[in-house]
Structure formats: C-alpha cells, structure tokens
Write a structure and sequence with these properties.
The chain is α/β, with parallel strands linked by helices and 322 residues long. The chain is built from 11 helices and 12 strands. It binds alpha-D-ribofuranose (RIB). Alpha-D-ribofuranose binds next to strand 9.
C-alpha cells in the first residue's frame, strides 16, 4: 500500500511530520481517492449488478427497490440494467457487468437463454436468480409459488360460482406464466370442469395485450363470466376493455390479476389480485448474494415464497340469468 493510502486509511503508523506533508500535498493537489485503484488492490468493487427485463413494470421496480435498499445497508452500490426482454441486450449487459468486475449479480432473465447460462456458469460469478427459474444453472434463487397462485385465483372464482372462467396468460415461454396457467388448469380439473382452450388467450404481460385479450373473450358466445389475468398490468388493460363495451365489473364480469402492484389498489373497481412478496424478494436476493460473495462455497439455495389472495372489488358471486 502507498504512504498516501496508509495516511488516508490509517492502516500503518506514519510520523506526524510525514503525515503532515502528505495531507498538505493532498490539499494542494485536490487529490480524490481512486475507487478503481482501491478496487484493483482489494479485488472487490463493492458493487452489485442487477438485470431486470422491464423497468417500466412496477413489479420489477418494487423488486429492484428491495435489492437496492438491502445492498445500500450492506455497503454495496447497485448497477441497474434493463434488458427490455431482449436476449441479445441481456447478454450485452451480462458482459458489461462482468467486465466492470461487479462482486455479484441479481438476474431476472428475459427468457430461456443458453448463452447466458454458459456465460454465468463459466464466469463463476456470484449470482442470485430471481422470479424466473433457470434450470441447469447452479445458482441461488428466489422464486414465487406461481402454480399455487394460479390455483388460488381460479379456486376463488369457482367458489363465487363461476364455471366459464377464462385466462389471459403472460409469455408462454416464461416459467412464472406457464406455472400460473398450470395452477388455473389444476383448479378447473379439481372442480370437474373441462378446460376450454378457447378461453385461454396469450398475452405478453403488457396492458395492451390484456385489453386485446379481453375484447376477444367478450366476443365469444357465450362470453366468460370471470377472467384470471396472469399479471396486473394486463388486468388493467382487461378492465379498460370491459368498461369500453359497457360491461359492469364485477356485476357482469369478475377479474383477478397477479402481482399486486401498487396501482391495483387504485383501479375502478379496485383489483382483486394474487400478491407476490416483491420487496421481500429483493431484500432476500441481495442478502443471499452478499452471503455468497463472502462465501462462494455455500451450497446452492432455493427460496420459494408464498403468494396471497388480496380480495378487493373486481369479483362478485355469479349472477344467475333471470
Ligand atoms: O408483471 C411482470 C411479471 O413478470 C410478474 O408477474 C413477474 O412474476 C414476472 O415474471
């Protein structure tokens, strides 16, 4: 270590005379300690990288907030990267974060990406997978029980007497959406109701696809009396479509969403939804990552968090035809 560093960090005795000369020089040169030099010496940047697929979606914003709050408390800076759901952009950011020698990264994948699995496996970087499980990658993970959440939503609608229950899914290649649809199918099967594939429409987790999906469903004859929508942004689009054709929610149509983003409490009517522990997922991921940074030999850990049905005003008991 240099004398300047010993003076700044008080890591070794320096005579008063020499200390005074160094401090005078620092003041005269307006010296700023170099983070890069410090990082190279310590082989630590105290920086965590985070890659999320869509920073405009409040779900990821709340997860990112948990990661950032926990990281700050533990003395780590965070570099947030938005892959836009694009696999190439995801790879660019992975390469950038590795080049910047982040101490570890929290990764929400944009979808199945063998090149990313290859890079993460060979680079041996400390990492935590959040929300979208990546099979074949020996990394810690923080996930939600999406199958149970899809079952909860559908079971709730069945208990209200609905039998013609539709589903607007997220991107089918993403595990959270596929698992929610499995939960939907399981609940119908358990109730002895055959699954009508015409009632399952593909969305993309954005509001527009929820709007379009609902317009299509409402043109069916007979239309569904209830819809499970696989995330809140699409459910908000679906609500808009129902209002637009003069349908009253929940008197004429029940809607359940998924995520419980803050907006779900302010729609008209307020959205009944399946809550994910978003902020807690972020906190847990950051804490697990710092533990991994400090001890790379820990066995891989998989945390599966529960969902919760949040009943608000967008569902009602099935109204029998007069
Ligand atoms: O709303 C975005 C969706 O993508 C969430 O349901 C989350 O689980 C992520 O997979």
């Amino acid at each position: 270590m240099t004398t300047v560093s010993h003076v700044l960090n008080e890591t070794r005795f320096v005579s008063e005379e020499l200390r005074g000369r160094v401090l005078d020089a620092i003041e005269e040169l307006n010296y700023q300690p170099s983070g890069v030099a410090r990082s190279l010496r310590r082989k630590r940047t105290h920086t965590i990288g985070m890659i999320i697929p869509d920073n405009t979606n409040p779900f990821f914003a709340e997860v990112a907030r948990g990661i950032e709050d926990a990281s700050f408390e533990m003395g780590y800076n965070v570099i947030l990267c938005n892959s836009d759901g694009n696999l190439e952009k995801e790879m660019d950011y992975l390469g950038l974060l590795i080049e910047k020698r982040v101490d570890g990264l929290v990764f929400v994948s944009a979808g199945s990406n063998p090149a990313a699995i290859e890079m993460l496996s060979t680079q041996k970087i400390a990492g935590v997978i959040v929300d979208r499980e990546i099979l074949g990658l020996a990394m810690d993970s923080v996930l939600t029980d999406n199958k149970r959440g899809g079952y909860q939503a559908t079971r709730y609608l069945l208990d209200l007497g609905h039998r013609r229950i539709a589903c607007i899914t997220g991107p089918s290649q993403l595990t959270p959406s596929a698992e929610r649809v499995t939960g939907y199918r399981n609940a119908l099967q358990e109730a002895g109701i055959p699954v009508d594939e015409n009632l399952i429409l593909a969305g993309d987790f954005q509001s527009q696809s929820g709007y379009q999906g609902m317009r299509t469903l409402l043109r069916l004859s007979p239309p569904p009396t209830a819809v499970f929508v696989c995330n809140d942004l699409m459910a908000i689009g679906a609500l808009c479509a129902a209002h637009e054709v003069g349908l009253h929610v929940p008197q004429q149509l029940s809607i359940v969403g998924f995520d419980d983003i803050a907006l779900a409490s302010f729609t008209t009517p307020r959205l009944t939804t399946i809550a994910q522990p978003k902020y807690e997922m972020g906190l847990m991921a950051a804490e697990m990552l710092v533990e991994r940074i400090k001890n790379k030999d820990l066995p891989p850990r998989r945390r599966l968090l529960d969902t919760e049905l949040i009943i608000r005003d967008s569902c009602a008991i099935l109204q029998r035809e007069e």
